[in-house]
Design a protein that fits this description.
Blueprint lengths: L4 H13 L9 E4 L4 H8 L5 E4 L16 H6 L4 E4 L2 H7 L3 H13 L3 E6 L3 H5 L3 H13 L4 H4 L3 E4 L13 H18 L1 H6 L2 E3 L8 H5 L6 E2 L8 H11 L1
Parallel strand pairs: 1-2, 2-3, 3-4, 4-5, 5-6, 6-7
Length: 238
């Protein structure tokens, strides 16, 4: 929940100006009121855009919700589903997250499915079980073709804004498990699905993280609010 029309204009212009030689796919996911600003500013540029959430419902009496069809009206290519803050602050269950991913795919939008464990869960040795259950709930709703059209983002909740960090090896271990889980669903899913790392990726750790075999990119938080930092991470991804 950051941004204003003026701040967005400056940030987006700064990102686009630095994308001339970008060799990585990149997008910004913005608060819904600013989607039209993305349409106006980013159409015709290499930078795609998406939403930070989407309703699991197609339409109806769900005041305040935003349907996937509405996001399509604004040219969204992506929608984040199951972000740790949505799970923690809005009580979103694995099943709700799965339904949101399904709704996004049905509208032609790529869901960025977030999974991740708390510090208590990691210290209890439950990381594999927790993230496995979170991804399984989504895969159970999708056929093999749809499963290959999602993006997965691993965000260890304990490493976001806490001063604690996951080493590249720790992150890779979870990403490898997620890849294996996708492979069990279909070979195409394991090959095609990008698995992003969302645990406070920054310019100074991006290259080392993305050098890991199963870390395909990043879901960037605070560093994406500074054009120079975001561009540095995009360069590292290449």
């Amino acid at each position: 929940m950051n941004g204003s029309r003026a701040a967005n204009a400056s940030l987006l212009a700064g990102i686009v100006a630095g994308l001339d030689n970008a060799k990585a796919a990149c997008a910004v996911c913005v608060p819904a009121p600013y989607l039209q600003q993305c349409v106006d500013t980013l159409t015709g540029t290499p930078l795609a855009w998406g939403a930070q959430d989407v309703s699991q419902h197609v339409s109806g009496a769900y005041t305040g919700e935003v349907a996937a069809s509405m996001l399509v009206d604004f040219g969204c290519r992506y929608a984040i589903v199951g972000h740790s803050e949505r799970r923690a602050y809005h009580g979103e269950t694995d099943q709700v997250v799965a339904q949101k991913a399904f709704a996004a795919l049905n509208a032609g939008i790529t869901p960025i499915v977030c999974v991740g464990e708390t510090l208590a869960q990691r210290e209890a040795g439950q990381t594999n079980v927790v993230v496995g259950q979170q991804l399984s709930a989504v895969l159970e709703l999708l056929d093999a073709d749809a499963a290959a059209r999602i993006v997965v983002a691993y965000e260890p909740i304990w490493a976001i804004g806490t001063g604690k960090t996951a080493t590249p090896a720790m992150a890779q271990e979870v990403h490898a498990q997620l890849r294996s889980q996708l492979r069990e669903r279909s070979a195409a899913a394991a090959e095609q699905v990008a698995i992003l790392y969302g645990g406070s990726m920054k310019p100074d750790n991006a290259a080392e993280l993305m050098a890991q075999g199963d870390i395909d990119g990043g879901l960037i938080g605070g560093a994406a609010l500074k054009a120079a930092d975001f561009l540095a991470i995009i360069d590292a991804a290449a």
